[in-house]
Design brief:
The complex is a heterodimer of chains A (141) and B (281).
Chain A (H helix, E strand, L loop, with lengths): L1 E9 L5 E4 L1 H11 L4 E7 L4 E6 L3 H14 L11 E2 L4 E2 L3 H10 L2 E7 L2 E2 L6 E6 L5 E9 L1
Antiparallel strand pairs in A: 1-10, 2-9, 3-7, 3-10, 4-9, 5-6, 7-8
Chain B lengths: L2 E5 L11 H11 L9 H11 L3 E5 L1 E2 L7 E3 L1 H10 L4 E6 L7 H11 L5 E3 L1 H4 L9 H10 L3 E3 L20 H6 L5 E3 L7 H10 L3 E4 L8 H12 L2 H7 L4 E2 L9 H9 L5 H16 L2
Parallel strand pairs in B: 1-2, 2-5, 5-6, 6-7, 7-8, 8-9, 9-10
Antiparallel strand pairs in B: 3-4
Helix pairs in contact in B: 2-11, 4-6, 9-11
The chains are: A alpha+beta (141), B alpha/beta (281).
Chain lengths: 141, 281
Amino acid sequence: MHYYEEFTLRTSRYEQLILITRQVLEIAARSGIRDGLVTVQSKHTTTGITVNESLECLESDIETFLSALVPEDRPYSHARMLRDYGSTAGNPTGHLKALLVGNHCHLPLQGGVPVRGGAQEIYFCEFDGPAVRTITVTVTD
Amino acid sequence: MRIDIHVHPAFYADINGDSHREGLRHRVTDIHKNGLAALEHIENKMACARLDRLTLLAQVYPEARGGAIVSNEEVRSLISLRPDLFFGMGSLDPGDPHLAETAEHALGDLGLLGLALYPCAGEFRPDDPRLEPVWSLCEQYDRPVLFHLGMTWEPGQSMAWAHPLSVEPLAMSHPKLRIGITRFGWPWVRETAALLLKYPNLYADTGVLYFDCAREFYQQTFTKDLPITWLDRSLRHQVLFGSDDPRFEQIRMAAAMETLGLRESSVELIMGENALVYLGL
């Protein structure tokens, strides 16, 4: 048995870390499944999903660290007109940061509740905002 | 006030209730996979680009090319929804049998701040005699015209109609008419620079990004193809920040303009002060 739900976020900044733990817990509860696995996944290629401690200082460090690894001013190849879009590709850094962070996380489900460590929160990571983003949550027994 | 003078609202959610119309807009503009933008999203983008106002352009083509891709009334309706975010320019097709009435309606009744015209779509020159009554109205209302010149990406439109030098006869015959050239006339940017130098009633926007990233393309265009001193010393009162959103990268283009190496006062002129003069505000 599995249960599937999506929810959307409207991000407001170019880069943004947004807590989505609450939404995931609510969907897990709605699933009716007691024991299994929860998968949280972004449907986009310039965003990420990660689990970390929710501290302002850490959020700043994560953004600074990723920006140092993937600086805006490098001569990326993904900077050209894309015929399929009819517009310019300007978001190589978003794609590369998504590559580093990954687009999903898994959490064990016990008693209808996703199992987390005491410091673990689920983040949606925007790397090419602002945009409307969709996150999928799949609960399987 | 920081202003983007060149924004196409074709994919704003509030004017896209009709899927047939939305499909037409995708086909005509050849812009795809972009989704519809809610006003809240537009406002977020503006904040990221540090823009205070967007100038929304109506887009009226000949019927054979789709007609009113974005009508004057639709631009007016968007302004009415968020007058704190938007200015607007109307549009018309020179083949319109009621040209003067259409222009009067746009500038007078709807209160739009100028007219955006599309020579490549309509296959006309800016000095087309059919447009003479329109220029009289623009002068009467003290409103500008914005010609879509420079490379066009839209299918079925020849760039033979896109050369910026085509505005010279109009600039000569109507020295009081403020005339804008989109995309800095790219790739004919030196010709555009020469026009701006000679005719103080001419303006050019920066809404072009056909190669590379915004920073690289702006560096190439505005510091190499044109020495930056030309903008910073001679043309700084006639250049308007424009993005051609949603074709290009509004947020990154605004950031790129600030890193060109222009004097701060020149950046302020280009990012908004010149647009206020151009629009007659």
